[in-house]
From TrEMBL:
It holds the Pfam family Glyco_hydro_1. One of its GO terms (biological process) is carbohydrate metabolic process. This is Variant 5, Beta-glucosidase 12. GO terms for molecular function: beta-glucosidase activity. Belongs to the glycosyl hydrolase 1 family.
Length: 150
């Protein structure tokens, strides 16, 4: 309403980690993508495509709210710039054993995330127990956003 007269810009800042597959297996690569879908795509896909990521739609099913056509159109392209908070990265492994678990935000993606695999840390640990120093993850996340969302 005021954008034309005030020349304002509307932005959003999203938080996301980067996810590194624990192996080169397709199941683990897919798990890393699902982890990213459930963390970053959950917000970015509606803002760029007017819908949730396909992985969320198929895995969460009817528990995921649906956008009306009008809402979808209003969401698409509704921001001028994106801010990004990046703190850490994690290993991601396919976790089919979660399929029967109580449906929650932590289990729906069927992904196990951890900062170490086979006793090897992804990077040095910071003062916080969850914070792993992995600058490459920030670069990978930026490249992913550029490729996926331009």
């Amino acid at each position: 309403k005021y954008q034309a007269s005030q020349k304002g810009l509307l932005g959003i800042t999203l938080n996301s980690d980067w996810f590194v597959p624990v192996s080169k297996e397709k199941a683990d690569r897919d798990a890393a993508q699902r982890a990213l879908d459930f963390m970053f795509g959950w917000y970015m896909e509606p803002l760029t495509k007017g819908e949730y990521p396909k992985s969320m739609q198929s895995m969460v099913g009817k528990r995921l709210p649906k956008f009306s056509e009008k809402e979808s159109e209003q969401l698409k392209g509704s921001f001028d710039f994106l801010g990004l908070n990046y703190y850490s990265s994690f290993y991601a492994a396919n976790a089919p054993h979660l399929r029967g678990a109580e449906p929650t935000q932590q289990t729906d993606a069927l992904v196990n995330v951890t900062n170490q695999h086979d006793g090897k840390l992804l990077g040095p640990m910071a003062a916080s127990s969850w914070l792993c120093i992995y600058p490459r993850g920030f670069r990978e996340l930026l490249l992913f956003i550029k490729k996926q969302y331009n």
